[in-house]
Task: inverse folding
């Protein structure tokens, strides 16, 4: 494992994008960052610049309006990069799946590495997903995380 790879495992930088959620899952991401759940103990820092992000956290379903923004953010991230679908809406469209303009889960637009279902998803599940993402970066997790999340 290279030095950069080792360093990245100790300081994962994440970026959050709300694709059009009800904000329930966004609040749970904030909760995961607060001292109570404290994902920063894993070296995780929340940032706003895709060019410096290792992981893209997405809440809400993909739709015709946000698909270009989502693709744009993903394309700006340097490799290796991971995408986490946070909440049932991001995983499959959730309660919005039959709505006009909705495409479904975000994997209809960009590749997803870790799926974290739940409505709203609990901070503990987000932390579990982060550990899966870390294992994936370390080459320890299987390629298909869909069944495990
Ligand atoms: S999964 Fe539930 S809480 Fe999360 S964005 Fe969808 S409706 Fe809201």
Result:
């Amino acid at each position: 494992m290279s030095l950069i790879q080792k360093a990245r495992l100790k300081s994962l930088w994440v970026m959050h994008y709300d694709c059009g959620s009800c904000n329930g899952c966004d609040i749970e991401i904030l909760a995961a960052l607060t001292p109570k759940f404290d994902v920063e103990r894993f070296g995780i820092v929340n940032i706003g610049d895709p060019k410096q992000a290792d992981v893209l956290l997405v809440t809400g379903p993909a739709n015709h309006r946000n698909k270009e923004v989502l693709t744009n953010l993903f394309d700006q991230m340097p490799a290796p990069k991971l995408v986490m679908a946070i909440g049932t809406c991001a995983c499959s469209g959730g309660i919005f799946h039959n709505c006009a303009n909705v495409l479904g889960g975000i994997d209809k637009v960009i590749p997803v590495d870790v799926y974290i279902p739940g409505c709203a998803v609990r901070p503990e599940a987000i932390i579990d997903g982060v550990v899966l993402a870390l294992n994936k970066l370390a080459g320890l997790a299987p390629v298909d995380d869909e069944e495990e999340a």
Q: What stands out?
A: Strands lie at 13-18, 45-47, 55-59, 62-63, 82-86, 102-104, 114-116. The first strand starts at residue 13 and ends at 18. The chain has one domain: 8-137. Residues 21-22, 24-25, 59-60, 87-89, 94-95, 119-120 surround iron/sulfur cluster (CB under 6 Å).
